[in-house]
Amino acid sequence: MTTSSTPEHSETPDVLEELLATLPADLQDERLIASRGVGGAISVFISKLRSGDLGSLPVFVGLIVIWGVFQSLNGDFLSSRNLVNLTLQSAAVGTISIGIVLVLLLGEIDLSIGSVSGLATAILGVGLTQKHWPLAVAIIAAILAGTVVGLVYGALYTRFGVPSFVITLAGLLGVLGVQLYVLGNLGSLNIPFTSPLVEFAQQQFLAPALAYGLALVAGATYLASRLAGRARRSASGLSTTPTVVLSVRAVALATLLAIVVFVLGQDRGVPYMFVLFVLLVVVMDLAIRRTGWGRDVMAVGGNVEAARRAGINVRRIYLSVFALCSTFAALGGILAAGRLAAVNQSSGGGDTNLNAIAAVVIGGTSLFGGRGSAYSALLGIIVIQSISSGLSLLNLDSSIRFMVTGAVLLLAVTIDSLSRRSRAAHGRA
Amino acid sequence: MTVTTAPVETDTALSLHGVSKRFGAVQALKDIELDVFVGEVLALVGDNGAGKSTLVKTIAGVYSPDEGDMSFNGESVNVANPAEAQHLGIATVFQDLALCDNLDVVGNLFLGSELKHRWALDEVEMERQSWELLRQLSAKIPSVRIPVASLSGGQRQTVAIARSLLGEPKVVMLDEPTAALGVAQTAEVLNLIERLRERGLGVILVSHNMADVMAVADRVAVLRLGRNNGVFHVSQTSSQDIIAAITGATNNPVSQRAARHTQGEEA
User: Fold this and answer.
1) In degrees to the nearest 10, what's the CA dihedral of A235, A237, A243, A244?
2) A64-74: per-residue pLDDT in tens?
3) Residue A4 covered by a domain
4) Which of A25, A29, A292 sits opposite B128 (nearest CB)?
């Protein structure tokens, strides 16, 4: 770790200039405690933790604790079979959670995702079994229904300024009504097991070679993109992350994925549905962090007035986010219908709504807008499904499950609030 | 008392002629005449309710004037909204700065006009340009990759001013830039204003602080009750004269206080 030395007073301005010129452009401010090299990267990480910039560390720690506790209570918990089930259970609600990340980034909420996913399953079920639509048509119709609901929310919000809480609360009831209307007196519809959707959601798993290949590709892609970025930074005279650190990270990523593939491979393998979910998370993460649209979403979530004055079309951002949220909800509903091979009046009901929202908050996305990541959907849903799966392995009924999930949610929000206070005190708010 | 001698060999960047603005029964601005020259700092002063903010917002395109003409670079213009004003080259730094606390300095500087590298944001180029801009302004910002929430008041002001410069404006309006700042930070912002002048920009500085005005302004335009109440060259006036113009009388609370003090000292 080299500290950008505060030049001594005896040095002449020329020497000082020369000394500064050798430093990258972004490390020249003399008040900056610059850290370069491998040691620097580690010390930055530690000082971040100290100041309360915890990132997703609490979720990781929480997950390890939860897994440890359940494994000690029931040896089957960390078995490959149960973990494969866990990924299958996570994918549907997790997909709904991705949409919630987006609305939370704006500091808004969507309470009707359960109903919207229910409506999508109803349209899918009725379309497939009663109207005999082709599968693709049924899926597109169901997803579009979600998009339309989201556009209506967005229009109501941007035109009339009704709080999203109330709009979507009304939507929770209204869309549930539409779902029941679509189902009529059909009761429960079974989607045939031969349907590609059901096969996709229940029985298709990555071939081991393909799975390991993907893990390797993920690591290589990460390394390649970071090295390219590093080259551009250094060409522009900016500080760079050491190649060693980047390589270590890439190898760690590939190894982690390979371990996941290995463990799941002891049973059925990595489900296609889970791969789709993770892929959606990665794509949304890139969209949020790396595109102009994502930057606009963060800006609107941070300070609407500033975003408006900067010339951002705030209305378009709200509209697109509400529409995307409902679209993800519809997609999640379709995956759930495929997994259960059934559609009924309680599809998307029960705890779908609150699990999807709780997952995002547990995953570390702030409820107050402008702070969070698409990965919180992935991490959060795994925590929630782990609790649910662990408690059902212990033959505890849903009363206990609700109480434990509630407690974990409360803990997550408390950690978030405490770390926010610490961030403010350390100037990292 | 209006000084009539025009500055030598300067171009007019922005010129207002007979601008009036009414809000219902209130005549907020009446026949305002204002010229801003290239490479000068024009201070806009006046008591509360004198019409400073209304005038700034009118120039910025937030309000449209009821009467009067505005010309920019010698051409008559009609500014309908803030975006048009920015497009013309009139940048405004409002008092509340309008920064996104959760974004870093680079994110705030380029907000609404991000640079793209293929489909993605060009973070590298934006960061490089940020440093270049901040260095030109000799701005002291420890890192452009920290959220602006963690910057001091003066640094936030610096970021807001630097942002206004990205569109290569001709005229920059600063609304009370030093109102909430400490001594050192005020000095930093005043340095920054002088550097804007050196870059050849026309700067309109709205301020209540006479010390700041006397320190950096070339000319002072006084507004009183929505009308022009004189334009002064700082080098040829005392702050007493300006205060008299602001309050509308030589016999005003400020001068009375000053008189009491001198009497007290003599006694």
Assistant:
1) 170
2) 999 999 999 98
3) no
4) A25
Q: Over range B156-177, report the average pLDDT.
A: 88
Helix (H, G, I), strand (E, B) or coil at A294: helix
- Identify whether residues A288 and A242 lie together within a single domain: no
pLDDT of residue A31 exceeding 60: no
pLDDT tens-digit series, residues B35-59: 999 999 999 998 888 888 889 888 9
Question: Hey, are the CB atoms on A307 and B100 less than 8 Å from each other?
Answer: yes
Contact between A122 and A149 under an 8 Å Cβ cutoff? The reply is no
Q: Is the ipTM of this complex over 0.90?
A: no
Q: pTM of the prediction?
A: 0.84
Q: Is B82 on the interface with A (CB under 8 A)?
A: yes
Q: Does B136 touch chain A if contact means CB atoms closer than 8 Å?
A: no
- Asked if A164 and A367 count as a contact pair (C-beta separation under 8 A), the reply is no
The verdict on A158 and A174 lying in the same domain is yes
Least Cα separation, residue B9 to chain A (angstroms)? 35
- B238 min Cα distance to partner chain A (Å): 38
- Give me the CATH number covering residue A89: 1.10.3470
Do A256 and A398 lie in a common domain? no
Token code pair at residue B256: 């009375």
pLDDT tens, position by position, A217-237: 999 999 999 999 899 888 888
Query: Domain range for residue A220?
Result: 205-270
Residue A31 CA to residue B140 CA, distance in Å, equals: 9
User: Using a CB-CB distance cutoff of 8 angstroms, which residues of chain A are in contact with residue B149?
Assistant: 424, 427-429
Q: Which residue of B has its CA nearest to A238?
A: B128
Say if strands B202-206 and B41-45 run parallel, antiparallel, or are unpaired.
Answer: parallel
Q: Which of A29, A290, A429 is nearest residue B120 as measured by Cβ atoms?
A: A290
